[in-house]
What we know:
Elements: H1 6-20, E1 26-36, H2 41-49, E2 61-67, H3 70-82, E3 90-92, E4 102-108, E5 112-121, E6 133-140, E7 152-158, H4 165-186, E8 192-198, H5 207-213, E9 219-220, E10 254-259, E11 269-270, E12 291-292, H6 313-323, E13 332-337, E14 342-344, E15 348-354, E16 360-367, H7 371-374, E17 382-388, E18 392-393, E19 399-401, E20 408-414, E21 420-430, E22 437-447, H8 463-473, H9 494-506
Parallel strand pairs: 1-2, 7-8, 15-22
Antiparallel strand pairs: 1-13, 2-4, 3-4, 5-6, 6-7, 8-10, 9-10, 11-13, 12-13, 14-16, 16-20, 17-19, 17-21, 18-20, 21-22
Helix pairs in contact: 2-3, 2-6, 4-5, 8-9
Amino acid sequence: xxxxxxxxxAGVVSIGMLAxxxxxxxxxxxWNISNYAGGRASDLxxxxxxxxxxxxxxxxxxxxxxxxxxxxxxxxxxxxxTAPGSPGDWATVQFIDGPDTDSAFFYRTTKVVSLGxxxxxxxxxxxxxxxxxxxxxFHPVGYGGGNGSGTIAWYAVHxxxxxxxxxxxxxxxxxxxxxxxxLGTIVPRGWAGVVxxxxxxxxxxxAAYQTLAGAGAAFLDPIKTPGSWNNNSSFRFVHTQDPAGAxxxxxxxxxxxxxxxxxxxxxxxxxxxxxxxxxxxxxxxPNHSYRAWGNDGTSFDNTLRVTGNTMVGASIAQSxxxxxxxxxxxxxxxxxxxPAVAGATPSLNFGSVAQGSSASVAVQVWNSANAxxxxxxxxxxxxxxxAASGGFGAPGGTFADEAGGTANTHTITIDTSTSGIKSGVxxxxxxxxxxxxxxxxxxGEVLPPVCPADFDGDxxxxxxxxxxxxxxxxxxxxxxxxxxxxxxDxxxxxxxxxxxISAFESGC
Length: 508
């Protein structure tokens, strides 16, 4: 792809982000499926894999709440793998049967690598949270190994319901345990973090929410939508409960919070603008990939709209209602862009060049992330600078390359003002996930000027050169690479003889 300056890049990022909302890159979801023991197969498959106007939920990771058993987990896995349109590559992890209902983690093996599950908060009776909190660790395919910046720690929550002081205190205990685990375990590893699920909070002012996503907290709301959400029509586009009509759509209990590493504009990142609040006039907000799946904003205080639902259409909307089993929740989905991966020419060699001449070689730099797996819009732009040492020169400025395109080509120069062997390094500093800095060795030799009087080319000016020129001038033979046209005027005449004599007498 054509190299771009930083100024040009700003527009590219914006365009790429808007394109990314149309089709998932790394699409993640959370869903409270309401006391799930199995079944509801057809409606779950429709809700997850059916399409409306080109839109489909189709996540790569889905974390669920209110699962009742290992058999429920297995049934759901089977539903995912056998759904019409499913790639059939779904897997799951250990199901831990804690107090009350539990979370379950499902992921596509062609897109995600699971690193296992950890219990970070034990559930129990008051003052403990009612349920376990699980942390599911994973990274996108191609981003494992020693660099932790591609890994996500996902905290699956189903906090205590209710608004009493006791309910809020039990939610606060869970929030504090998540915060402490994230800051003490995950941040030192360089991993990103997500807290997602059924928070059961009515307002962003409640203590548990402030602990997780308040000012200076470890996580943030990617759609920047604080407030008192309960029964407030201003938030009708982000409400998730209850699509089945038990109280109507008037709560934002279900959310996905993200850590700063997923909101810094580089590497593994949320596709959206975290500085812009979610729209209050449309569900189809171009600034965000975050969606309360199925909520087109027309169902405040009512059952989820079916006929005329502009986000998912009637069939998907009805399945979302049926899955609720009488009272339940909508899923939340959002998309992430995977990091750029830097690639470059491994080494450069000028060979031999003449002193005082101009010479250059080309170095290529490219974004080698897997655009086939993630799509170009699903990969961060590679942004980089070049620097040269050891008598070589590289262009200044910041450049960019998108995954899936052609490599950028840059001109590297060599200083030929002095002779000798030159050796240096071209340093590429980038946001590439694999290496923040790539060093390319570069060599070359600058040869001293050729002495024209050394006609036989043996490194000495002597009578052998005189004899060689005379022989050449008379037409007998000329040393390789020489001519009797010493003054280069196109004629062999006495002017050439005079020019050679002058050079011979001057020496070198």
